[in-house]
Amino acid sequence: MKKVQVKQTWFQTIQKHYASVRKQQNKKLLRIKIKLFLTVLLPIFILALTVQVVRTFIQIKVRDVFTKTTNPSKDEHLPK
What we know:
2 helices, 80% helix
């Protein structure tokens, strides 16, 4: 059985058009948010993470340098 097409009222037409325009605007807004995240926020996050990693690496290296103690009496007995 075929469905009979009913003519839409002016209100239904306007409502349908408004829904499609709103959907397009939401897609544009989502694209802008994604671009903003990828171009601004993500690089800042990566930079902050890099700074923390470098700071931790330096702390580890400094700790290693100062914890290594050399005994001068043992150094004298080593053959040259």
